[in-house]
Design brief:
The structure is a homodimer of 326-residue chains.
Chain A lengths: L3 E2 L5 E2 L4 H24 L5 E6 L4 E9 L4 E14 L2 H7 L5 E13 L6 E13 L12 E14 L5 H16 L5 H12 L1 E2 L5 E2 L3 E8 L7 H26 L6 H21 L1 H8 L4 H4 L6 E3 L11 H10 L6
Antiparallel strand pairs in A: 1-2, 3-4, 4-5, 5-6, 6-7, 7-8, 8-11, 9-10
Chain lengths: 326, 326
């Protein structure tokens, strides 16, 4: 297997636990970008490599003005540093050094009948430097570690068969690990992507979401890494067939108008409520990589409400009242 | 003078301090809406009266799709209720009942050469019910009171004469009260409307901003009410002549594109950093009235940077490095 380099400082290979995850994240980024480029048929991802003051960096890949994808990003980051007060407060953690590595993607299609999709899979480690067996290693002793992630779908028009396919894909992945996971992580997703200031309207039709999953006796760190890898690997099968099926649907200005109204809700959620966005911006994350999640064109209208009985009202209803799809 | 009713419960007249301010706020709303309608020449404000669960309500007036103004709101609210834990924490206040009354406006013109403008003038009172002389009045004893407000301009293209006119208007108002006010409140404005996540880029070219001004020996409550009234009254002269001067300027798709990019920054500031927006949404304020501040059409592009030497770059420079205009 080819040896990968994260940057000049960090060699990525299969040697140890952390490096396995770093390798996976790089490889997943390559596979997802290739699959989305094939689906788009025109646009290619452009890459920005960046370094973070304080430790690490990332690779941001952005696609824009494609046949299918108007704006999207598939980003990875491998970052580390000192534990700061804001991290102690917000994450309720101890330790003096941290490490995080993950992939985060958002894809906004141009056609209102193709849904927007988001996913994020990440590992976090905490170290206590004073406990380092050698007393001088960069990382010290791992005192805490967790995985988090999820994938969720934001359609503008509801196709039940698409919703079922998307949820079934993740249910199949979850069931291979624990039959309780899908119902639990589906509910966590419905409870997380909520515009609390709009009568608890959801951003979309959900998917799965899990956070801060720490190794326990049976569900050890290998279990959670394998689960996160399986979820990450499922993305292409969960989303691309939906985009393929809907990408040539004809649409008019009214459909586009509704898409832009709903994109406004997407912006509201990300900037007002999304913990990752707000935490990233407050802790000096790379602004352009974080805000690549925002759609290209957005519309805000005062007190906009779709006509009852329309497809637009149907979509809104399913955001207000999450359904069981399978 | 005509007796005004806030709603069926609260009579507004000139009788006492609080009622003077409530009367002023209603009257200012009427005068500003009339001036903006005259400037627009086509669109009329539409009015929504609303009540707040817990006490009070407001009058939201929205203008849309005019000749000049694409979207805007001139809102007033007269609200009161019990002091909650989130208020104690965020406002660092005591007391058990509160009252607030103010006017808040945002106007987004269609033409990129006409600037967006925002202003807000408000009074806040705190009561200790247990100290009420009668023991049973709705309000008890006033134990704290403050005024806050400001007006700031967000142009998309810089016209120095417009910036000077706007700042000079507020400097003239300030100087009638205290020659130290304009420099102090101009700086507070530059320090408040900041997109901290974008290298401290300002939302626009500022104006004045003051918050939590409590009565002291010489600067008593009448002083601060009169100052706030004078600032509120100055809005029409500060803004409307600029809109009149620029509203017929011809523009092309590139100008509109830049306006929508800058509107994206406006959205970022309001949803990520604006204390009023976030506090309002968290304390169960009326979402549609709060978010009327967002522009109609907005654009987010990855890592967008204007070409050096262009008018767009000049505007960005003045947002990154606030100037003294007078």
């Amino acid at each position: 297997m080819e040896t990968k380099f994260y940057d000049d400082q960090t060699m990525v290979n299969e040697k140890d636990f952390k490096e396995k995850w770093i390798y996976f994240v790089h490889d997943l980024q390559n596979r997802i970008c290739a699959a989305l480029e094939t689906c788009d048929g025109k646009a290619k991802f452009e890459e920005d490599k960046w370094r973070r003051t304080g430790g690490g960096g990332g690779i941001t890949r952005v696609i824009s003005n494609g046949n299918v994808f108007e704006k999207g990003g598939v980003n990875i980051s491998v970052v580390f540093g000192d534990v700061t007060d804001i991290m102690r407060r917000q994450l309720k953690i101890e330790g003096d050094k941290w490490f995080a590595c993950g992939l985060s993607l958002v894809v906004h299609p141009y056609n209102p009948f193709v849904p927007t999709v988001h996913c994020n899979y990440r590992m976090f480690e905490l170290y206590n430097h004073s406990l380092s067996p050698t007393g001088g290693g960069q990382e010290g002793v791992v005192i805490d570690r967790w995985f988090g992630g999820g994938t969720d779908l934001t359609p503008y028009y509801l196709f039940e068969e698409d919703a079922k396919h998307f949820h079934q894909t993740y249910r199949d992945v979850c069931d291979k690990f624990d039959s309780g996971f899908y119902p639990r992580f589906k509910k966590e997703c419905d409870d997380y992507f909520v515009n609390w200031h709009r009568n608890e309207e959801r951003r979309g039709i959900g998917g799965i979401f899990y956070d801060m999953q720490r190794p326990e006796e049976k569900l050890d760190e290998n279990f959670w890494m394998n689960f996160s890898k399986a979820c990450g690997n499922a993305f292409i099968n969960a989303y691309v067939p939906i985009a393929e099926k809907r990408k040539d649907t004809s649409f008019n200005a009214q459909h586009k108008h509704w898409q832009e109204i709903r994109r406004g809700r997407y912006v509201e959620f990300n900037l007002l409520h999304d913990r990752g966005t707000i935490f990233g911006l407050k802790t000096n994350g790379r602004t352009e990589s974080i805000l690549m999640s925002l759609p290209a064109t957005v519309r805000f209208e005062y007190d906009y409400r779709p006509e009852p009985g329309t497809p637009e009202a149907e979509l809104l209803d399913v955001c207000l009242h999450p359904r069981e799809w399978i």
